[in-house]
Amino acid sequence: MRRWIRSLLVTSAAAGIGLASAASAADSIKVGVTQPLTGAVAASGNYVTNGAKIAAAEINANGGVMGKKLELVIEDNKSNPKEAVVTAEKLIVRDEVPVLMGAWSSTYTLAVMPKLMEYGVPMVVETSSSGKITTSGNPWVFRISPTSEMEAKSFAGNIEDFGIEKADMLVVNNDWGRGAADEFSGMLEANGVEVGVIETMDASAQDLSAQLSKIKESGGDTLFVTSGVEQLTLVLKQANSLRVPHRIITTGGSQSPSQLIEQAGEAASGSYHVLFFAPWFPEMAPNADVAQRFVDQWNENGYNAAGLTEGFRGYDGIKTIAAAIEKAGKAEPEAIRDALWNVKVNGVNGDISFIKQGPEGRESGQNIPNVYIVKIENGEIVKPEF
Amino acid sequence: MDQLLQHLINALILGGTYALLGIGLTMIFGIMNVVNFTHGELYTFGAYMLFFVVMVLGLNFFVSLAVAVVLGIILGAAIEFTLLRPIRGANIDTTMLVMIGAWIVMQNSEQWIWSGIAKSVSTPFPSDPLVFGPISVSYYRVFVFAAAILLIVGAHMLIHRTKLGKAMRATFQDSDTAALMGININRIYTATFALGSGLAAAAGALLAPVFVVTPTMGNIAALKAFAIVILGGLGNFKGATIGGFILALVEEFGAGYISSGYRDAMGFLLIIAVLLFRPTGLFKQAERIG
Amino acid sequence: MNRALGLGFLAFLVSIPFWIGDQYLLHILINAGIFVIGAMSLNLLLGYTGQLSLGHVAFFGIGAYTSALLSLGFDVTTFWGGELVVGPQPVWLSFLAGIVLAGLAGWFIGRISFKVRGAYFVIITISFAEVTKLVALNWVDLTEGPMALISIPPFSVSIPGIWEATFYGKTPNYYIMLAIGVVSYIVIKRLVNSRLGRAMVALRENEPLAMSVGIDVTRYLVLAAVVSAAIAGAAGGLYTHYVRIVDPDVFLFIYTVTMVIMVITGGKGTLAGPIVGGIIFGVLPEILREFMGPEAQWVTYGAVMIAIVMFLPEGIVPALTRFWERRKESRDASDRMITGRAASSATETPSE
């Protein structure tokens, strides 16, 4: 018994020392990544992480940052805002990373933000779309993904193409979904489109027939849906079986049309998707060579092709961070933050640079990304005909 | 009016699977006095097994359904044999704690084996729906409904028309006397648990193509099964069947006309109301309180 | 002997921030401590009255949300149409309000659920926790729903106009946790050693008998539920002002299960049990983190829980106490052979 206890103590002490020695390795620069690797939105988090790994491998193959290796410290936030805070705390306090990338959903990112203020560490936000993130006066936040507002604005030019007269909405019940519903309905009404019903669904809800039955009755011609790819699969399948007559347009950038084709089959046919990267048409991207190279590396690594539309965010995020560290000349939080204001990166989505948003003196950084629309037709992804 | 009809059809279709989930749980409680926290995991297990046999092994869909149910029955029997038999006669709290432990082990094993990424299962049914005027419903969901009703009737027949069922009913009424009459109580318990598990696995397998398969899909299913069983009265077979349809109706109309966000809350509010005013369930039947 | 051990342990706990160095470990200890307090409160119901309450996380969450909302301030449209606006309140006041409201919820749920026993009781408590979770999720006006309440102020003390301190750091939060833990421990200890506590144990052992000797069963159970819920609410308030974010996931069933595992592993119906169990399961995940994924860890915990219920139903603390006493007895016996002195095998009740 006593010997057993002693051996337990020895192992745990050894584990502690192992951690300590890993932390003091000076020949690498650490970047903290917090993503949902398990739980409800695990698929997306894993794709983003894959993209981040590709970026790190590419950077290290080309000599690293300031001659040092870039080392990703990846933590799982378990699709839960509280865990997102715990992982950020761990990355900052224990691993002493000078910069973070995360945390996928708006809810997780908003949860982490006070910790960035508290410890003074910058974070590059790769996915979240809630306006609040860059307008709440947190000078440590730099977002490369578009806000719902930007997405809605860029869609305004397409209202005519689609000939939308009355639109309904079905969104996931969180910052992301509600934000999208607010921005899109505002934009549509400003452009003379009537907005019918706005329905919400719990992130874990599987049976959406009640919401869809209500939408079916509303008499709109277009249904905007914002949610993760799993729930979109359910929406498409159930809308099809309920004969919801609407044209379905998904927004939010986490849709992965390839996965929708695979999982929803014919039910996905005829749907449109607002995306931030269209890997089927890399030539559409402003930096076509970067986009093509990213797609090639993704496939070489054997990652699921369905994840490309999410994975590029991780790639762009790490590239942005690496550029900022290089510019700062040292891996320290404050220097990296100041450098982020001046970076210019050729990303997969397009050219990344930050403009100021939020209250004066405490502005957050916001990138202006590109938005694409694709259509699913008979199991194929095509450019829309307009 | 059209919307009303559509909601009604949705509720009816949903109610069939709810009832299927409910009767498995209520049987296990009624006969064995065990609150089965692994019920939702057997539902998940059924769904994953269907996915495995159809999508990975590539067998015929209907054969695969049967395989998934049989595997569910085997797993149920194994749980009864290894976890419940050794603590036979222990008080109900002890068995509940053991079943909660089993729930944790099963759910996390599923997460471990299959990862968190959702799986989807395709069926041989056409994806275009069946349309009657303003109402439409997919062919597969009609099949699910028919299969659920068939299984419920089958279970009912098994309990009322077979020797095994007779022994089960005897055990339900008085296990000591049943044992004295020469009934092998252990065998009855294993059979009951296996049957209840098979029904849960059947519900999971049937619904897998309708929804997507995830490791945590069983949680909400288990909670609904509890609600149904409480509505019908613990241990009441007919009560659970009707309870399934009532819950589906309340949810569907609650979501359609009150608030879609509170859809899942309807069931629990119903439980609390029933327990407040009629703690033995909506339907009369002499029933001990566990 | 026990008192010395307890004070020694407390002194050890007090000394930790002076030598630990690694702030992250302190963070783990604070989190574990919060769960220990939750487990101690659950033990009052589960261990002393013998009621398997599986909705305990509801009280924790109510404490957390109440304290968070009051300290942030809120405005909400009430059911009767008017608008209720509450400005930000001092943290200590919010924290107390959280305890009171959790206690009230305990009273309410106690009144309802103690009419039934066994399976019905378990299911009604689970349902209650699920309903509170769904309310937190959907009453977006008040709770922000899945968007979570963020930027919750940390604990602070102030003498208005003269001096104030806000506790962002780990060390002050650790001591706040420890202080609340000690107070909870004393409250529970006083309670179970009082007439009331003896009545509760009597009713756990034999309810019909307890009733026949005139114990008002429901009254005692409700009282236990109120105290238990209030302490769980305190743990929730502590959590909320330390983590500074609260979302509907605080109501997850798995957190109740975590507390249940802590209590039964340590030893239900003993004062030390939840502390031992809580420390084991609060710290273990961090040690195992490097070797096992979260799923593998949970598979292990589930298996441990089954094994304990089946093979060591009393838990670790009573088993150790017995082991200790048996050793002492055999040593005393050999002493007696030599000196002829009578051994005082003062077998205390296991509730010490």
Automatic annotation (TrEMBL), chain A:
Family matches, as CDD domains = PBP1_ABC_ligand_binding-like
Per UniProt, the keywords (alphabetical) are: Amino-acid transport, Signal, Transport
Q: Which residues form the Leucine-binding protein domain?
A: 28-379
Q: Indicate whether Metal-binding appears among the record's keywords.
A: no
Entry's Gene Ontology BP terms = amino acid transport
User: What's the superkingdom here?
Assistant: Bacteria
Where is the signal peptide, in residue numbers?
1-25
What does the similarity note say? Belongs to the leucine-binding protein family.
Protein name listed in UniProt: ABC transporter substrate-binding protein
Organism of origin? Ferruginivarius sediminum
From TrEMBL, chain B:
The record, for CDD domains, names:
TM_PBP1_LivH_like (cd06582)
| TM helices/strands, residue ranges | 12-35, 47-78, 139-159, 188-211, 265-283
Q: Name one GO cellular component term.
A: plasma membrane
Q: How does it sit in the membrane?
A: Multi-pass membrane protein
GO BP term, pick one: amino acid transport
Swiss-Prot/TrEMBL keywords: Amino-acid transport, Cell membrane, Membrane, Transmembrane, Transmembrane helix, Transport
Q: Which domain of life is it from?
A: Bacteria
* Protein's UniProt keywords contain Hydrolase: no
What are the subcellular locations of this protein? Cell membrane
Which Gene Ontology terms cover its molecular function? transmembrane transporter activity
InterPro entries in the cross-refs: ABC_transp_permease, BCAA_transport_permease
Record keywords: Transmembrane included?
Answer: yes
Under the heading PANTHER family, the entry gives: ABC TRANSPORTER PERMEASE PROTEIN, BRANCHED-CHAIN AMINO ACID TRANSPORT SYSTEM PERMEASE PROTEIN LIVH
The entry's family comment says: Belongs to the binding-protein-dependent transport system permease family. LivHM subfamily.
Q: What is this protein called?
A: Branched-chain amino acid ABC transporter permease
The species this protein was found in: Ferruginivarius sediminum
Q: What is the lineage of its organism?
A: Bacteria, Pseudomonadati, Pseudomonadota, Alphaproteobacteria, Rhodospirillales
Automatic annotation (TrEMBL), chain C:
Q: Which InterPro entries does the entry link to?
A: ABC_transp_permease, LivM-like
Instruction: Show the stretches that span the lipid bilayer.
Output: 25-46, 58-80, 92-110, 119-140, 174-192, 220-239, 245-264, 300-321
Asked if the Swiss-Prot or TrEMBL record annotates the protein with the keyword Transmembrane, the reply is yes
As for subcellular location, the record says: Cell membrane
Q: Is this entry keyworded Transmembrane?
A: yes
Keywords (alphabetical) are: Cell membrane, Membrane, Transmembrane, Transmembrane helix
Main localization is membrane
Instruction: Provide the Gene Ontology terms for cellular component.
Output: plasma membrane
One Pfam match, given by its short name, reads BPD_transp_2
Membrane-related topology note: Multi-pass membrane protein
According to the UniProt entry, its GO molecular function terms are: branched-chain amino acid transmembrane transporter activity
Q: What is this protein called?
A: Branched-chain amino acid ABC transporter permease
Q: Which organism is it from?
A: Ferruginivarius sediminum
Query: What is this organism's lineage?
Result: Bacteria, Pseudomonadati, Pseudomonadota, Alphaproteobacteria, Rhodospirillales
